[in-house]
Amino acid sequence: MITPSGHKVYAIAAEYPTAAALYDAAKRVRDAGFKRWDVFSPFPIHGMDDAMGLGKSWLSAVVLAGGLSGLTTALILEFGPSWILYPLIVHGKPYDWKTVPAFFPIMFELTILFSAFAAFFAVLIMNGLPRWNHPMFNWDRFTRVTNDGFFLAIEARDPRFDQNETRDLLEQTGGQHITIVHED
Amino acid sequence: MDGATAAPEVIAGEASTSVERPLARVPLVLNKRSFGWLTEQIAGAVEGRAPRWWWVAFAVAAMVAGIGLFCLGYQISTGVGTWGLNHPVGWAWDITNFVFWIGIGHAGTLISAILFLLRQKWRTSINRSAEAMTLFAVICAAIFPGVHVGRVWMAWYLAPLPNNYGIWPNFRSPLLWDVFAVSTYFTVSVLFWYTGLIPDLGTLRDRATSKIKKFLYGVFAVGWRGSNRNWRHYEMAYLLLAGLATPLVLSVHSVVSFDFATSILPTWHTTIFPPYFVAGAIFGGFAMVLTLMLPARALYKLHDIITPQHIDKMAKIILLTGSIVTYAYAMEFFLAWYSGNSYERFAFWNRVLGPYWWCWWVGMLFCNMLSPQLFWFRWCRRNVFVVYFVCMCVNAGMWFERFIIIVGGLHRDFLPSSWGLFIPTWVDIWTFIGTLGIFLSLFLLFIRFLPMIAMSEIKIVLPEADPHHPSPTGHHPVAAGGKERT
User: Fold this and answer.
1) Which of A104, B146, B248, B285 is deepest in the core (most CB within 10 A)?
2) Are residues A45 and A72 in the same domain?
């Protein structure tokens, strides 16, 4: 979709005065059946995932995989050298199942370490970050999103998107400063 | 949806008068401050010119840090003989300082992770700076085991790297556990801290006036735009990092205590050490958090954000952990008597009446056991000067505790013919003071360039952040009774 000025339309966006207003608007947009839309706020709003119709984040599955790979790494790292490559008898401690607990601390630490890396990189990758720019930043009011602004944007590529009807919907939900956000 | 919200409206109205009013709590941000005010106050502190006191403090801290680095260079180039340790005291200030610093870090992780899991919302005022304190304390801590090995260039032997001698580290040694525990702790703390910083770096990016600031904050903000689709994964990652950091922080000081507990020395060889060390670490760490936060609060006028309620709660944690530590000290004496072991009994008499007697009476008894007991009184918890005095006592006392455990455990061993005392040299003393300088320099740089309070987190504790909060325009009528957020 192209505007008269020749810009490609990314979305129609509105600003809301409070977190509560944004929350209610999100429920209305969700019930109207939109799929490609998003809300923007300076902090996570409690219950907004449900208001947008989003489920639980599956990031925890990635972290579980990270933790398991950390545990596996520790098992190979410890038992490889200690039992096979260079068995070191210190204090006369033998190598049998009774001494296995002495290997636990490093297994624990590496499980935590790999899980934490998994959580960190998963949150970036799943959010498509880092990225240099985003169409929403083309809207000058949007700089307040990291301060005290609450925004909602419905993307043009949503199948239900219609410039006039979508604008009306945002107006009905109490959106202010409704504007067309350009792609570039 | 309209029908659904209409029904609980009545109940909410009733509840607010009959049930919720008596439970209303003191707000965590005073004077009904707005989101914009918080941004202005917190981000404003890092924008603009540095105040004069900052330059003075930074110059002094950096100079002291420089002396510390010189001492480290001198010690590395000359040898560990520049330190006062020798047989029988083979560990002295180096390991004392290591345990002291690593312990301080623990309060930061307790605030950022454990209090997060316990839904203690007051943590949002202090978590960012406490986490920064953790990182800087761990940096100071890591210096000591690194250089005390003597030949620093051989430190890579600590890592399980394949080498042409075919030698591997002993994975069943607590000293190697320590290497893994401390390096994991530092790495996870950095990841947790940086994840929390991303939305706030976005704020600084959006407020930046110069191109270079916009670029640098922009790079580190990784393009954060506050999207709820992003917040969804972000909150899960934050929760999981908190869940991972919680057992981690408890494990780190437990592993540090294993360095002692797995040996067979009287006063070291004891199963009480892991919980005793963890409680002591949190005790000392909270004292350091307050030591840093009380001046920062006064200098940056953060009285509406770090309120008397916050100081009161931290003082209570100091009282609790201080009492656990007192119990542990008493239990050590009881077990020394109850064990019937003459070496153990001698070692504890020696702690109280031996050559380092004054360290015990001043450091452990007065600073650690008695001074926090002032916090039983509300007046003391609410008076910043009393709080500061107790925190200073605890800072000193926790250093002495580690000194007594380490040097006190070593200087009179089983054979009286091999007894000896430890006397610090100037290199010992200035290396320790130097790490205080490194710690303060890093903290001053942190409050200069990064928001010292987590903006995106503290905004959540405002009543307006609640999606059910009644708006002034009457847009959302639920809970008109004025529910106070807890």
Assistant:
1) B285
2) no
| Chain A residues in contact with B473 (beta carbon < 8 A) | 17
Does the beta-carbon distance from A136 to B225 stay under 8 Å? Answer: yes
Both A93 and A141 in a single domain?
no
- Residue identified by tokens 């070692």 is B347
Q: What is the mean pLDDT of residues B397-405?
A: 94
Q: How confident is the model at residue A132 (pLDDT cuts 50, 70, 90)?
A: confident
Q: What is this model's ipTM?
A: 0.93
Q: Which of B240, B247, B465 sits opposite A63 (nearest CB)?
A: B240
Provide the residue range defining the domain that includes A118: 59-126
> B87: pLDDT confidence band, cut at 50, 70 and 90?
confident
Candidates A16, A18, A39, partner chain B, best to mutate (most B CBs within 10 A) = A18
Class of domain B30-161+168-465: mainly alpha
- The whole-model pTM stands at 0.90
* Number of compact structural domains in chain A: 2
Q: Which residues in chain B are closer than 8 Å to A21, comparing Cβ atoms? A: 471, 475-476
Span A93-117, average pLDDT: 91
Classify B426 as helix, strand or coil: helix
Buried b / exposed e along B246-284 (16+ C-beta atoms within 10 A): bebbbbbbbbbbbbbbbeebbbbebeebbbbbbbbbbbb
Average pLDDT over residues B48-62: 93
Q: Which amino acid would we find at residue A134?
A: H
| Cα–Cα distance, B87 to B300 (Å, whole number) | 49
Same domain (yes/no): A115, A141: no
Q: Check if the beta carbon of residue B393 is closer than 8 Å to that of residue B366.
A: yes
Domain positions in chain B: 30-161+168-465
Q: Which residues of B touch A108 (CB under 8 A)?
A: 247, 251
* Two tokens, residue B13: 């109205």
How close B242 comes to chain A (CA, Å)? 10
φ, ψ (nearest 5 deg) of residue A10: -90, -45
* Digit-coded pLDDT (tens) for B5-49: 333 333 344 444 444 455 667 888 887 888 888 998 898 889 888
Mean pLDDT of B478-485: 40
Find, in chain A, the residue whose alpha carbon is nearest to that of B199: A146
